[in-house]
Amino acid sequence: MILMTQILHVIGGGMAGSEAAWQAANLGVRVVIHEMRPKVGTFAHQTGLLGEMVCSNSFRSDDDEQNAVGLLHWEMRQANGLIMQIADKHRLPAGGALAVDRNPFAQSVTDALMAHPNISVEYGEITELPEDGQWIIATGPLTSSALGQAIAAETGAEALAFFDAIAPIVYFDSIDMSQAWMQSRYDKGETEEERTAYLNCPMDRDQYEAFIDALMAADKTEFHEGETAGYFDGCLPIEVMAERGRETLRFGPMKPVGLTNPHQPDVKPHAVVQLRRDNKLGTLYNIVGFQTKMKYGAQAEVFKSIPGLENASFARLGGIHRNTFLNSPTLLDQQMRLRSKPSIRFAGQITGVEGYVESAAMGLLAGRLAASEILGAALDTPPANTATGALITHISGGAEAKTFQPMNVNFGLFPPVEGFKGGRRGRKDRYKAYTDRAKSAWHAWLKAEALDAA
């Protein structure tokens, strides 16, 4: 008979939970994934598939020499990461970014986990913190109310929360291509398909000013009593950005740089709205950076004022949902364990990382740490000069607990590299030094882990 402690239980089948289960199972540990969907749904999810993408379909930059996110991609690939394997399989043209066909992606994640001999899936909601066994809680930003309350009761502190906004998706055949054109910013990409991965809708000054006026005047979703709108800066609703200044959007998601309108090559647009392909067929495009809390009727009206989208049909309008995360620097140790209940680890967005890639990376690490503990082989966390190590160092004590907020991976989390100039001029060499150092350290960590397991 196998004891409960020899089985790893993972609550949540999103990016982090799926990756955690995959990593632990590949190390020889039996894993049970507990997923409440489709029995219990959420505002943002559409299916009961594991690894479903609920916001963007982009894993962001895939540049592993000059970008911290791309470096994280690289580290996960080196560690046999499931999420990156499946993402590469269902890749879509997106310039220098890694975007995927979301539904086939989730189906493939589900199929891979279901087919693994060491993994089983149980559907149903977990409403209490478990008292025995080894567990990873990877319930993400949409942790159920009951489990969230149980976590808050155990930690003695209220879970922090911000609101995460979802961008709308448009049917391609409803876009007026006599006004719009296909081009990646600065023509990024190695192939013609990559260099034309984005759809662009130009605005002149009057159109932009009218758009800002409409955006500011539109009906927005109201917050319930007691809720606060503490947005994560990397996912601000466009109307919140507009409230910070009329030019904010023009220097953010609507910046007109690196683009030439072939319909009017001699006219520089005042602003540009970009859309990115959302599925392999190219029938769906999401409006880049256009997360919103406008009401549905207002969204349709405001977005149809964009040149080229006057007759747009929407496959999905934007929305807003509560995003729950822990004050991890005070609650978790470096092994990602809850200090007050070390048999429970946390992984993914609930730990205070932001983004699909970061969530999956924390799942990868939690799965390996938990499996090693079960197998009786101690495993150190990766060094802080790797992308994965920089994230775990940040959330487990590197961040200031009093002001802790969700964080994307970035080179600001890495220990400095000596001998390189600061500022923009030295950035290329400095970033290459960061990634070279990280790759060497990551390989050494993986090698040490393999020796310990042996």
UniProtKB/TrEMBL annotation:
Keyword Cytoplasm appears in the UniProt entry: yes
MF (Gene Ontology): tRNA (uracil(54)-C5)-methyltransferase activity, 5,10-methylenetetrahydrofolate-dependent
What cofactor does this protein call for? Answer: FAD
Q: Which reaction does it catalyse?
A: uridine(54) in tRNA + (6R)-5,10-methylene-5,6,7,8-tetrahydrofolate + NADH + H(+) = 5-methyluridine(54) in tRNA + (6S)-5,6,7,8-tetrahydrofolate + NAD(+); uridine(54) in tRNA + (6R)-5,10-methylene-5,6,7,8-tetrahydrofolate + NADPH + H(+) = 5-methyluridine(54) in tRNA + (6S)-5,6,7,8-tetrahydrofolate + NADP(+)
Compartments annotated for it: namely: Cytoplasm
Which positions in this protein are listed as binding FAD? G12, G13, G14, M15, A16, G17
Q: Which InterPro entries match?
A: FAD/NAD-bd_sf (IPR036188), MnmG-rel (IPR002218), MnmG_N (IPR040131), TrmFO (IPR004417)
Q: Name one Pfam family in it.
A: GIDA
Q: What does this protein do?
A: Catalyzes the folate-dependent formation of 5-methyl-uridine at position 54 (M-5-U54) in all tRNAs.
Family statement: Belongs to the MnmG family. TrmFO subfamily.
Q: What name does the UniProt record give this protein?
A: Methylenetetrahydrofolate--tRNA-(uracil-5-)-methyltransferase TrmFO
